[in-house]
């Protein structure tokens, strides 16, 4: 499946690839079977894949978009979620990443609970805070089984300075559209990129604000739990 | 499919009979490792079972463990737990295009095999990629055989591939990079610029190409792998890269390179393919791609890279293994600090956590074969590191009420300090063999204690034997040392230590122990100690002890293992996962709690 999925896109895109396109690399991370493959597939392939194989290592999909009369390429890197891969492998995937998408499964609390460690993981790779990050709750079509209440997720997202989207790769008729989410991200990326082109030291103000909030939060947290003099900021 | 299974079972029966002579048959078969023979073998029939019986030894396991599989299935299914949950989620994500895994028959067979294996080998449990391998095996053999093959794969053929940190696959990644560098230097430069190898090779190795090629083609590779060992994977990998060399060299980013490779791999086929290429759920532009015959690929692999031997692979593995483990340890240290840092009970003990972590980590992750090897090559620990680590060890026992543990701890600590000192003296005496030894004896005789002579002769003796024996020599003296120590000038040493720590186990602050305990005093005020003349019971009292003082992991392990209380403590079944989960839950809650408060302006 890995092979054939990307292969298809390779056929449609690789040959047509225009070297002048701005390319943005987006890494999609989250626990195993939260639907990372389906989400990326939904966006790049246009529909929900009926049968997917567990992702081993990393998979890759891309899609060309036209934003403000300019064509850009979004590369979605779909990673393996199992913990043993995370600890050993994911470091390779963070090279030149332009945005991070955290995914959890709204029907499984545990996938939400492991988000802090994914965020930690991400922080470790010295990604700047100005790199857009978004939080995606997937499978919200399973209405009866929702285990992660929106307000809890929203609070978490606020705390980490990320926008939250709840969606479903399968049926996004009455939640946030997968398409719209990634397009938003693409807009943000493009805007950020052109800003950095003008002046590399300029970051969008909201990002600076976010960075401050985040570090304050961590410090606070450290104080609360630890009540020692050490601070890990 | 039926006929394949029948023939395979016939073959398996046949070779079941000759399994005793496996060696001989293997030898004669190994003559066939030539391009044409592989070709013939592959054209005729998948030899999965044949080679499985011979090379993997799986059939021996099968024959010698009747009923083991049934037992494993029963226990595995009943057990539950995270591994089973993971398996359950992946059942429908294993070879989903194959009709066998679209009905309950195949799914439950796969469930049984994976759960049984997770039960058999809790060190591995379940690793994604095993589901894909197992599902393909199930297409070609029965459940029990698939089970034993999976066991042979994960325990012998792909050492450490599926363990909790997929170390084996990482090691082989390094091996592959080396091989590319040696045989395709031009491509290597490009590939490492792109960082592609680490991206693609994991799935190649972990699933033996089953997840990247159409499985009917990939089983040919698996056949050869069972038949001819690990070198096949590397040969095929190199052949794939060589075939795409030109395209890869023109790639501008890693995405493009990934596409080139997956495009190529997706088009690998086999003449007798029944299911065609793996149907992807995307629109497939059929026929646009040039198909690659897997037999041709294997021929190229054998022709162009057949000179790669298993021995060479093994050598490279050894080389990379150390690097991989080291890197992982480093990452883990950083992780531990960052993740655990803010909400860690140990608080300030950051550096020490790291060290302990790496030690315990190393002790647990390595399988038997590598264990001895790695211990020997682990870097030794300096005195400062040791002292830091030992402090942390004490904080492990923060809530411990058993006094004996602290007695044991202080005993081990003292012994290790002494061992380090002895080692230092040995090294000193080696600089000027006869003089050094006598000097150490002389200097220590200022105590006027018979014990000193003991040590002096010890170091002399140790100086004569090679490195590895040093721990043994000192070890021998260990059993008697504690008593001696207490007979010496500082009889309160051990009791001091334990009482210090037991009296305030909860708050072991940074500085306090330093003042009281002999363990820490050396680094703090070595001069004072020296004047005190208590060299023997406070061995590391030289002005610059940390330069030479060192202990090895073996010494550490031996000493800890010598203390029954400690062994018991560490072997106690603690549900780590639960504890961690508790901590995490608390973390999440407190984070979301503080999240609301943090959003208010600071």
TrEMBL record, chain A:
One of its GO terms (molecular function) is GTPase activity. It is a lipid-anchor. The gene is RAB33B. Keywords: GTP-binding, Lipoprotein, Membrane, Nucleotide-binding, Prenylation. It is found in: Endomembrane system. Belongs to the small GTPase superfamily. Rab family. This is Ras-related protein Rab-33B. GO terms for biological process: Rab protein signal transduction. It comes from Portunus trituberculatus. GO terms for cellular component: endomembrane system. PROSITE patterns: RAB, RAS.
UniProtKB/TrEMBL annotation, chain B:
One of its GO terms (molecular function) is small GTPase binding. Residues 425-456, 476-541 are annotated as: Disordered. InterPro entries: Rab-GAP-TBC_dom, Rab-GAP_TBC_sf, Rab_GAP_TBC_domain. Residues 436-454, 487-503 have a biased composition (Low complexity). SMART domains: TBC. This is TBC1 domain family member 9. Residues 507-517 have a biased composition (Basic and acidic residues). Pfam families: RabGAP-TBC. Residues 1-229 form the Rab-GAP TBC domain. It comes from Portunus trituberculatus (Swimming crab). Coiled coil: none annotated. The gene is TBC1D9.
């Amino acid at each position: 499946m890995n092979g054939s999925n990307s292969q298809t896109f390779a056929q449609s895109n690789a040959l047509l690839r225009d070297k002048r396109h701005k390319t943005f690399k987006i890494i999609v991370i989250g626990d195993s079977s939260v639907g990372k493959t389906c989400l990326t597939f939904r966006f790049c392939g246009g529909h929900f894949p009926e049968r997917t194989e567990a992702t081993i290592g990393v998979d890759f999909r891309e899609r060309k978009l036209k934003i403000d009369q300019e064509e850009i390429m979004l590369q979605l890197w779909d990673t393996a979620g199992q913990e043993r891969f995370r600890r050993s492998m994911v470091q390779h995937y963070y090279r030149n990443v332009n945005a991070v998408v955290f995914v959890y499964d709204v029907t499984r609390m545990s996938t939400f609970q492991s988000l802090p460690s994914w965020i930690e993981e991400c922080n470790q790779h010295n990604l700047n805070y100005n790199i857009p990050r978004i939080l995606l709750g997937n499978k919200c079509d399973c209405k009866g089984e929702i285990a992660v209440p929106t307000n809890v997720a929203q609070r978490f997202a606020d705390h980490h300075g990320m926008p939250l989207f709840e969606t479903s790769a399968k049926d996004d008729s009455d939640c946030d559209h997968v398409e719209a989410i990634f397009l938003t991200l693409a807009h943000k990326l493009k805007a950020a990129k052109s800003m950095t082109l003008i002046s590399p030291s300029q970051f969008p103000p909201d990002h600076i604000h976010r960075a401050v909030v985040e570090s304050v939060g961590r410090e606070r947290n450290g104080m609360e739990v630890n009540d020692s003099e050490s601070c890990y900021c | 499919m039926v006929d394949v299974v029948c023939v395979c079972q016939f073959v398996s029966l046949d070779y079941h009979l000759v399994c005793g002579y496996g060696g001989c048959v293997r030898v004669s078969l190994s003559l066939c490792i030539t391009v044409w023979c592989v070709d013939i073998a592959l054209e005729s029939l998948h030899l999965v079972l044949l080679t499985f019986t011979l090379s993997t030894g799986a059939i021996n396991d099968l024959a010698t463990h009747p009923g083991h599989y049934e037992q494993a299935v029963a226990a595995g299914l009943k057990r539950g737990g995270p591994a089973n949950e993971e398996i359950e989620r992946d059942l429908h994500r294993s070879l989903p295009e194959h009709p066998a895994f679209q009905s309950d028959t195949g799914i439950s067979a796969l469930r049984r095999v994976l759960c049984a294996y997770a039960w058999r080998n809790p060190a591995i449990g379940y690793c994604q990629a095993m589901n894909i391998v197992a599902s393909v095996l199930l297409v070609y053999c029965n459940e029990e055989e698939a089970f034993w093959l999976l066991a042979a794969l994960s325990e012998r053929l792909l050492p450490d591939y599926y363990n909790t940190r997929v170390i084996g696959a990482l090691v082989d990644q390094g091996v592959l990079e080396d091989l590319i560098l040696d045989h395709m230097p031009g491509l290597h430069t490009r590939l490492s610029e792109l960082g592609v190898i680490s991206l693609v090779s994991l799935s190649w190795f972990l699933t033996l190409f089953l997840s990247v090629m159409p499985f009917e083609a990939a089983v040919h590779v698996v056949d050869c792998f069972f038949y001819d060992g690990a070198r096949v994977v590397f040969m095929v990998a190199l052949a794939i890269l060589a075939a795409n060399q030109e395209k890869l060299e023109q790639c501008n980013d890693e995405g493009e390179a990934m596409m080139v490779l997956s495009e190529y791999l997706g088009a690998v086929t086999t003449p007798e393919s029944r299911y065609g290429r793996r149907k992807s759920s995307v629109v497939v532009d059929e026929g646009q791609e040039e198909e690659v015959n897997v037999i041709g690929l294997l021929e190229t692999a054998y022709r162009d890279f057949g000179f790669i031997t298993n021995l060479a692979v093994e050598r490279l593995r050894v080389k990379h293994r150390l690097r991989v483990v080291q890197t992982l340890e480093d990452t883990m240290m950083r992780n531990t600090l960052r993740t655990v840092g803010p909400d860690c009970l140990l608080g300030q003990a950051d550096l020490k956590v790291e060290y302990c972590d790496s030690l315990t980590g190393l002790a647990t992750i390595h399988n038997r074969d590598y264990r001895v090897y790695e211990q020997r090559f682990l870097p030794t620990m300096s005195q400062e590191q040791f002292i830091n680590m030992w402090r942390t060890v004490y904080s492990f026992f923060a809530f411990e009420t058993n006094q004996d543990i602290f007695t044991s701890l202080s005993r081990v600590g003292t012994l290790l300090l002494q061992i380090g000192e002895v080692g230092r003296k040995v090294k000193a005496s080696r600089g000027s063999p006869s003089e050094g030894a006598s000097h150490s004896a002389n200097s220590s005789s200022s105590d006027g204690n018979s014990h000193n002579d003991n040590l002096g002769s010890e170091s002399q003796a140790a100086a004569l034997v090679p490195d590895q024996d040093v721990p043994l020599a000192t070890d021998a003296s260990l059993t008697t040392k504690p008593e001696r120590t207490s007979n010496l000038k500082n009889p309160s040493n051990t009791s001091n230590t334990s009482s210090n720590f037991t009296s305030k186990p909860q708050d072991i602050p940074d500085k306090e122990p330093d003042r009281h305990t002999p363990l820490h005093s050396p680094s703090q005020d070595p001069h004072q100690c020296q004047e005190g003349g208590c060299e023997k019971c406070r061995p590391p009292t030289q002005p610059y002890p940390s330069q030479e003082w060192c202990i090895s992991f073996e010494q550490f392990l031996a000493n800890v293992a010598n203390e029954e209380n400690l062994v018991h403590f560490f072997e106690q079944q603690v549900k780590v996962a639960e504890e961690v989960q508790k901590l995490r839950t608390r973390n999440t809650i407190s984070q979301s709690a503080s999240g609301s408060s943090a959003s208010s302006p600071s």
